[in-house]
Amino acid sequence: MYTANSNLNARLPAWRSYVLMAALGAGFAALVGRAVYLQGFNRTFLQEQGEARYSRMMKLDPVRGMITDRNGEPLAISTPVQSIWASPSDMETLPNDEQLAKLSKLIGVKAGDIKKKLSDNRKKDFVYLRRQLQPEVAEKVLALSIPGVFKMREYRRYYPAGEVLAHVIGQTGIDDQGQEGIELTRNEVLAGKAGSRHVLKDRRGYIVEDVSSMVKPADGQTLTLSIDRNLQYLAFRELKTAVDTNKAKAGGVVILDAHTGEVLALANVPTYNPNNRGVIDMARKRNRVLTDLYEPGSTMKPITAAAALEAGTFKPSTVLNVAGGMTFGKYTIHDAHPHGALTVEQVIQVSSNIGAAKMALSLEREYYYDYLRSLGFGQPPHTGFPGEAAGRVRPWKTMKPVEQATMSYGHGISVSLIQMARSYMIFANNGEIKPISFLKQVAPPPGKQVISPENAEAVKKMLEMVTQPGGTATRAQVVGYRVGGKTGTANKLEGGGYSKSKYVASFVGIAPISNPRLIVAVMIDEPGGGTYYGGTVAAPVFARVTTGALRALGVPNDAPVNNIILPDIDPQEAIEGTM
Question: Catalytic positions, please?
Fold first, then answer.
């Protein structure tokens, strides 16, 4: 008689148990192999994927360094703001319509746009919803308790001086990186270094734990500029008034320290407000004092006279015959007002084109070229600003006599206003020139001797004669101070020739003459108010700026307070370059 167990054993052959065991062993081996493969060859990838679901490395932004003027007054500061961001991958479901409506109202973004951002970035861990909100607004957003929506501290740049210093300070973008001016050129120093924070987050996206020690951000350094904010306001105010009054296209003013080369003020009109992050006309962002080139006209004549004195071909008392004109083929150089015989001093005082041309032609071409280059013409001023212009000086090997002659009175040579201001340093600083600096100097930088102190003093005397009766810049006189300078009126280049209706009026001067402290250069582009001469358009701006600046700096008077003597009729500036 058979039992139930004996029947079962008969029906199930032994080999089937071996097959089952083999299958189980193979499956186990496959699992072990897969585990070894994943752990051994794909470990990094899997760790990254796992950590991405609960671990975050959060960036900690540094505070951008403050920019101040030479007296510690703030010119650019960073204020804390909050940005609202979301992690779509941490959202099990998108916010409902009621949540979206409340969020939209708080951050000022349409509900449809918020929903689209979240829907299009479902696999992403980070997307901005709105940047740089007031902290109290961000707190209201978090109070909505929408999973996956967070706030993040950022900084917004604020410029107390606004449009007055826009071209010097520049501005930053929304990411707090420099885009213009000092903000761009010194971005590395100002920006600092970001820190980090490694955190764990739950399935709803909330931070539950710090994994490691926080790496603190290194804040940016404070930058002290050479700019004096009071002088900057003064220069900007007078420049804007002059541009508006003369219905000019644009204008620029720069004030230099006569001994150190520090830029105490630099103003441009038109300008822009760097606090406005909207669309700004790029023409308004141009730092014309550094980037725009123009023909300097008669402001070049003292430069030429100094070269002739230094070469020994002329003395201040040397008499030149400037009657008639000078002809070079089809070109003729003449003066707007005829003169007979003039000394070198009088050539500068009355602004004689012929006298300046004769002095230039007495020089070797290579000597004249090297001299102009030593003053910085034809090369960038190396201020570090983007787009600074080098200008153009004709190479001496190809310089024709007529070109050498016209360069002597500022035609056929292109300069920027800051180059022109710097060149006058040789008259204010005993023949020595120094580099331009927008940073406050601890000690005066080393300079280069270009002309002798004796010749510098001789030309300085000529510059003072220009502002006295009989000169072209009587309107440049300053109450209580002796000043000197030179006017310039240059026809603008247009269509391959000189325009007969567009001019650049300029003036470059130093003050006070007895012990120079300031160099002030003024340029008015295309004045259209009925007069266009440097003596009537630019010289008065110099007078007003210099008056305020000397008083603000507490510079002692070197002349009686009733020292201004005006002629019955102001002499007109010669129109340079007419050939």
Answer: 298
